[in-house]
Design brief:
The complex is a heterodimer. Chain A is α/β, with parallel strands linked by helices. Chain A is 36% helix and 24% strand. The chains are: A alpha/beta, B mainly alpha. Chains A and B meet through helix 2, strand 6, helix 3 and helix 5 of A and helix 6 and helix 7 of B.
Chain lengths: 248, 223
């Protein structure tokens, strides 16, 4: 019996910006329904790694297999691929000229080419999933940061992606708003979504992640179960980082 | 005083020549309705093409924009109208005016749209692309609506200039407002028609000027 195909499988991924090597050959496999958490100091290449998974950043070398297909191969339709890979950004990036519902339905209408009524129905369902059904007609600037980020999650969810990438989803939020976003992420996890999360929410990682990767200077320094990484880090760089972020 | 009124505000003369002026006014209006949308469309093409950041294309676009922004539009119009026949292209004056105006105004509108597009953060584009929108869809549905809103005062302001510039068409005998005003002046030996022309331009442009200053106040208040 062969192991089931990983949802995401990165092999020797490298990325250079001029002379700076941001990723120095990353291997990372994310299984179906797995939640993999990436931690590490700023500038360690976490976000770059995440952005290589949907080619917002073009890797300089290596392979990115999504559901068994190398999305870096020349024949690939990257726009078709991206609608199966949801992404959530640190700064939300909601479209300020569209309502919450407009944000969620834009890709449904223009990429999936759904008629307006169908798109609205599906958009409302997605907003309902993140607890914002009543704010469908609100403008982004009328929403709190936490609500904006949940709309951004709904925008990705509405396309029914196979995997969700989170790039520091709570870093721009006031502390009291973080919980509402984590609740949504927890619910997604419970419903079986495959998730790759870059974040500093160590408590959430400990409680919800299947696996934690520690990255530093463009490399995966170590990885393992959350309890193992947080309680018994094997590497001095991991220990140093954890001491700094947890403050003891 | 009487002489002033006789020469510049002569109602009798105005009554006599008003069909001429009306005809000129219609021509100017039609000219604007052609020249402004053409220039906006040309400017959009320039700015959107620029936003794809293809090096050789951007060199070409910068050369185009720089050249036509510094080239006097009057000379351009004369060159197009009197020059094209020398390369075997006999064009009617309206077409010559449209070509010259497109070349000139698209460079100005293009710069305005480019500034607008560049005012939109990378995150907007990335969010759109991450949902599977193509580069062009991202431009049309995400970037441009915000970009246009950001530069609306500049767009209107440039449009005012373009409308006033349509008077240049008189040099290639297009019977627009200024041309008809001068014809009327020649027929009556009285400059009153020119004053009337100025007042018509004023009536045409003033509402746009008001709109512009309201918009500007609103943008200022938002900041």
């Amino acid at each position: 019996m062969t192991a089931p195909l990983p949802m995401l499988d990165l092999k020797g991924v490298r990325k250079s910006f001029g002379a700076i090597e941001a990723l120095k050959g990353i291997d990372l496999s994310v299984a179906r329904q797995e939640l993999v958490f990436i931690i590490g100091p700023s500038g360690s290449g976490k976000s770059t790694l995440l952005r290589c998974c949907n080619r917002l950043e073009e890797p300089t070398a290596g392979q990115v297999l999504f559901d068994g297909v190398d999305i870096l191969s020349p024949g690939i339709d990257i726009n078709e691929t991206r609608r199966h890979i949801g992404m959530v950004f640190q700064s939300f990036n909601l479209y300020p000229h569209l309502t919450a519902l407009g944000n969620v339905t834009l890709a449904l209408r223009r990429v999936l080419k759904l008629p307006r009524d169908d798109a609205n129905e599906r958009g409302r369902a997605a907003l309902d999933e993140v607890g914002l059904a009543e704010r469908a007609h609100a403008w982004p600037n009328e929403l709190s940061g936490g609500q904006q980020q949940r709309v951004a999650i709904a925008r990705a969810l509405a396309l029914e992606p196979k995997v969700m990438l989170f790039d520091e989803p709570t870093s721009a939020l006031d502390p009291e708003l973080v919980g509402s976003v984590l609740d949504v992420m927890r619910a997604m996890r419970e419903s079986g979504m495959t998730m790759l999360v870059v974040s500093h929410e160590m408590g959430f990682a400990r409680e919800a992640a299947d696996r934690v990767l520690f990255m530093d200077e463009g490399e995966v320094v170590e990885e393992g179960a959350p309890a193992r990484i947080f309680e018994a880090p094997a590497h001095a760089r991991t220990r140093e980082f954890l001491r700094r972020v947890t403050g003891h | 005083m009487e002489a002033l009124i006789y020469n510049f505000f002569n109602l009798e003369i105005l009554l006599k020549v008003h069909p001429l002026l009306l005809k000129g006014f219609w021509m100017t209006l039609q000219l604007c309705l052609l020249v402004v949308p053409l220039g906006i469309a040309g400017g959009l093409v320039v700015a959107v093409a620029y936003s794809f950041h293809v090096r050789w294309l951007n060199w070409l676009l910068i050369a185009y924009v720089d050249f036509f922004r510094s080239f006097p539009p009057l000379v351009l119009l004369i060159l197009v109208f009197y020059g094209l026949p020398f390369i075997g292209l006999e064009v009617p004056s309206l077409i010559a005016v449209l070509i010259a105006f497109l070349l000139n105004t698209a460079s100005y509108y293009g710069e305005i749209f480019r500034a607008g597009i560049e005012s939109i953060g990378r995150g907007q584009r990335e969010a759109a692309r991450s949902t599977g929108l193509t580069g062009l869809q991202t431009m049309v549905y995400v970037v441009l609506p915000q970009a246009v809103r950001n530069v609306l005062p500049d767009l209107i302001s440039n449009t005012l200039e373009v409308i006033k510039f349509t008077a240049l068409a008189s040099v290639v005998a297009l019977p627009e407002l200024l041309r008809m005003g001068r014809v009327a002046q020649g027929l009556t030996y009285n400059p009153t028609p020119l004053i009337a022309v100025a007042l018509i331009y004023l009536a045409l442009l003033w509402p746009i000027v008001r709109l512009l200053s309201r918009l500007e106040r609103r943008t200022m208040a938002k900041r």
